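Protein 1 of 2
SEQ + STRUCT:
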Amino acid sequence: MRKIHIILIIVAFAAFSCKTAEKAPIISIEKVPDTITMASGLKYIILKKGNGRKIQPSDVVSVHYTGKFLNDSVFDSSRQRNQPIVLTIGKGQVIKGWEEGLLQLSKGDDAILIIPPHLAYGDRQVGPIPPNSILKFEVYIVDVTEVRKPEPFNVAGKDTLTLSSGLKIIIVEEGNGARPAFTRKVDVHYTGYFTDGRVFDSSIDRGRPLNFEVGAGRVIKGWDEGIMRIRKGGKARLIIPPYLAYGDRQTGPIPPNSTLIFDVELIDIE
C-alpha cells in the first residue's frame, strides 16, 4: 500500500514528442473494404483478427499504439517507447474515441481507429495536435484482463498472529514459495478495508498488482513488516494499527488514527 494510497492509472495523450516522429506507409482508408462507421462518427478497421477475449466494459487492456494525423505523420507512439499503455475501460482514462473503439476489439487484434474531433480533443490544442483534428491510431491489443471484484478473505477458524509491533497477521493460504527478503521487489494484490468492512482501495479493481521494494519505505510500515512474513503464492490478512499505517494524518478517504485491514496476496518476488 503506497503512502499515497489511491493509485490511478492516468493515460494522457498530452505529453507528446515529435523529435522521433516516424514516417510509415500511408494506408488509404477508402481502399480498405472493411471500414466500419459507428453512429458516433468513429471509424475502425480490423487489419488482422486476433483470437483472444473480446474487450468488455471494466476490463484492463494493454495496448500498443501509434498516433498519426491523416497525412500519416506520427505525433505519439508507445512502440517508440517499447512500452504498451495499460488502461481500464470505462474509467475515462483515454479519449472517447478510444473508449468506444476498443470495445469493438479483442485480444490480438491489429486495427485502425479513425477518430473525429468531437471524440478526441475537440477544438483544443493539445501538445502538437491542432484544434479540430481527426486522429488515426494504429493499435494492437496486447492483452485483455477481466477485472475481478474484491471479496473479503474467509478467515473463519484461522489463527491470528500478533507481532511485538502490534501488527496482526492471519495466514489464509500458506503459499509454496520463499518469503521476500529485505530490498526484494514484490508484486502484491490487495484490498484495503476499514474496520466496518468498507473498501477504500483495491488493486483488484485495477487488474494490476502493486509492485514495490520491501523495506525501502515505499509503503506503510505495517506492509513492510507483514509482507516479509508471507510466502510467494500466499494470502494473508494484515490488521494494521494507526502508528504502523498513517498515524494521526488524514490521507485521502482514510481518517486520522485509523486501524486498517488489508487482504493481500503475494503474487511474485523478483
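Protein 2 of 2
SEQ + STRUCT:
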Amino acid sequence: MNKQKLENRDKPIIGIVPLVDLQRESYWMLPGYMKGIELAGGFPVMLPLTSEDEDILQMVRLCDGILFTGGQDVEPQVYGEEKTEACGECCPERDRMEIMLFKELLKDDKPVLGICRGIQLFNACLGGTLYQDLPSQHASQVCHRQFPPYDEPVHEVILQKHTPLQELLEKSVMQVNSYHHQAILTLSDQLETMAVAQDGIVEAVYHPRKCFVWAVQWHPEFFFLKDPDSLKILKAFVSAARNRDVMNETRSK
C-alpha cells in the first residue's frame, strides 16, 4: 500500500469488546471508549458477545484493530488456579470470546490494546498468572482502586527505559488513574513490562514480536480529555491500526 492510498483511506475500524451486565442480562458500553477512539482518529464499533468460530474470524477480518475493555475478573481456571472467595464476579462468556479473539488477532498480527481487564486477560492467555485480589495478596500504600471521579490521577507509574511506551511519551514517570483489585502476578514470558507502580505492580506491557499489542492497567477511557499521555496511547493504537500493512512490510525487510 503506497503513501497516497494510506492518506486517502477511511478511518480505521476499531472493534471494542462489549461490557456485560450479568444482573440486567445486557451488553453496554462506556462512552469514553467510543469517544476516545473517535478523538484518536478511529471509527469505533461495539462488537457482539459470541464465541462462534466464524463470528470471531469475521471480527478479525472486519476490524483494523480491537480494544479489550475493563470489566469482570478473569476466571482463575484460565491461568490454572482455583477461584478464591476474594475473586470477584466472572463472566465465562467474555472469557471464551476474548481468548478466542485474542489468539486470532495474534495470528493475524493485528493491533490490539487492552485496558484494565485487558492487560490481565492478555497475560493469562499467554501463560501468566494474576493476583485474584490485591488487598489481600499484595497489601500496599499505592491506591489501586480510587473513588469517583475517575478522571483524576491517584498514583504514578515508572516507565521502563527503551520500551515503546517510554519512547512514545518521552518521560520516565507518568501519573495515572486506577480502578482494579486484580493485577499481573507472574508475567507471561511472551510479554515485556513497559511500566510499574511504586509497589512493583506491573502497569503496562507489550508483545515485542507483534506490530502493536499493548495493554495498560489504568483507564485512559476516563482520562483522555484531561491527560495528554492517555490520548497519545489511544492515538498510537489507532495509528498502528491505520498503518499495519506498511508496518508489516517494513518489519519483514
